Amino acid sequence: MKVCALQFDIVWENKRPNHDKVRWMLDHARPEKGSLVVLPEMFATGFSMNVAAIHDSDTLETHEFMSHLAADYRVYLNGGVVVRDISGRGRNDSVLFDPRGNEIARYSKIQPFSIAGETNHYVAGNDVVVTDCGEFKLEPFICYDLRFPELFRSAAARGANLFTVIANWPVARVDHWITLLRARAIENQAFVVGVNRCGNDPELKYPGRSMIIDPRGVVLEDAADLENYIFSTLDLDQLLEYRNNFPILSDIRPDFVPRH
């Protein structure tokens, strides 16, 4: 499967120019049909706590944009959307569409970033979501989830062999981003696609450094720190051969694997 990651500077709390930028980038990237295209966390608004201003629950503007984009390019499309929960707070979701534009998976961020007050404005998700994406079993995660390896292990126990991590991860902790992406790939013998934003919001600077990483922890592609798109080919046969030749997953103690 081909993977394309789009890294860009998100316009603050303004969906239309971000939608336009994504389409412009895809027009230039021209991903193959059946590819997986991945966008950052809250790609249409930036990482905002202003749920009332940015949620997609009423107009479905970003949801419909993603659906049409997936269908227009005949790709799987994964990106971040904010919706309003029944409680009145938001949900920070990672949504996956198939090449016909159908929503096929929705994951709610299990670990809101409490340090920044995300828990005050967003409810936490309560389960991993493993779904078919082409020939792969995909689990979509979001930003701060990356610091919690038990989430990834739980998904791997359910068959996940491809993880996406969409993010607004700041420059101050970029070394953690790179290290943890590689660690999640190595310990679960899975491909990891980490897609971060670059540029600035009103509070923080972002480093980009979106990456595609193989099951051995080798960085296949690195988007550096500017607006950019990167491609790579994920080979499922090579992944399965590696797992067969170095079968660490079969040694996992099931009594220590968390189930969410």
What series of H and E elements makes up the topology?
EHEHHEEEHEEHEHEEEEEEH
Mean pLDDT: 97
What proportion strand? 25-35%
Q: Please report the number of helical segments.
A: 7
CATH 4th-level superfamily = Carbon-nitrogen hydrolase
List how many beta strands DSSP finds. 14
The number of domains is 1
- Overall geometry comes to globular
**Strand order, largest beta sheet:** 5-4-3-2-1-14
The name CATH uses for the topology is Nitrilase/N-carbamoyl-D-aminoacid amidohydrolase
CATH class categorisation: Alpha Beta
Distance between the ends: 28 Å
Oligomer: single chain
Largest sheet: 6 strands, mixed
Category from helices, strands and their pairing: alpha/beta
Rg for CA atoms: 17 Å
Helix content: 25-40%
The name of the CATH architecture is 4-Layer Sandwich
Residue ranges: pLDDT <50 for 5 or more in a row? none
Describe the overall structure:
- There is one protein chain.
- By secondary structure, the protein is of the alpha/beta class.
- It has one domain (2-256): Carbon-nitrogen hydrolase (Nitrilase/N-carbamoyl-D-aminoacid amidohydrolase, 4-Layer Sandwich).
- The chain has 7 helices and 14 strands.
- Strand 3 and strand 4 (90-97) form a beta hairpin.
- Helix 1 runs parallel beside helix 3 (61-73).
- The mean pLDDT is 97.
